Amino acid sequence: MSEREFQNQFNKLLEKINTLPSDQQNKLKEIASENKGRHEQMKKTITELQDSLDYLRVSVKYLVFDLEATRRENKQLRSLLERRPEGDA
After folding, report:
1. Could you tell me the CA-to-CA distances from 82 to 29, 70, 78, 85, 86 in Å, in that order?
2. How many domains would you assign to the chain?
3. Average pLDDT, the chain
4. Residue 89 belongs to some domain of the structure
C-alpha cells in the first residue's frame, strides 16, 4: 500500500468514526491514532533499512574493486618474480 493509499484509507476511517456515537468515537480515534503512529514508525524503520542496504551495497562494491585490484597487483608481482633470473634471489 502506498503512502497516498494509506492516507486515503485512514481519512475514510476517521470519517466513519465521526459518524459513530461520541462514546465510541474516542476509543476508536485513540486506536486509529496509535496505528498511524505505528505506521510512521514502520516507514522510518524501512527508510533506515533501505539506507543501510544502500551503504552495504556500496561497501561490497568497494571491497570487490579492492579485491580485483589486489589480484591484478599480485599477478603482476608474480610475473615479475618469475621473469627474474634464478641467481638474483
Report:
1. 79, 18, 6, 8, 9
2. 1
3. 91
4. no
Q: Could you tell me the residue range of the domain that residue 26 belongs to?
A: 3-84
pLDDT score at 85: 81
**What letter would DSSP give residue 29?**
H
- Separation between Cα atoms, residue 67 and residue 78, nearest integer Å: 16
C-alpha cell read off for 29: 480515534
Which triple of cell numbers denotes residue 86? 634464478
User: How many angstroms separate the CA atoms of 83 and 22, rounded?
Assistant: 91
Q: Which residue has the higher pLDDT, 25 or 67?
A: 67
Cell output for 9? 484509507
Query: Is a pLDDT exceeding 80 seen at residue 88?
Result: no
What whole-number distance in Å separates Cα of residue 71 and Cα of residue 14?
62
**What is d(CA 46, CA 48) in angstroms, rounded to the nearest whole number?**
5
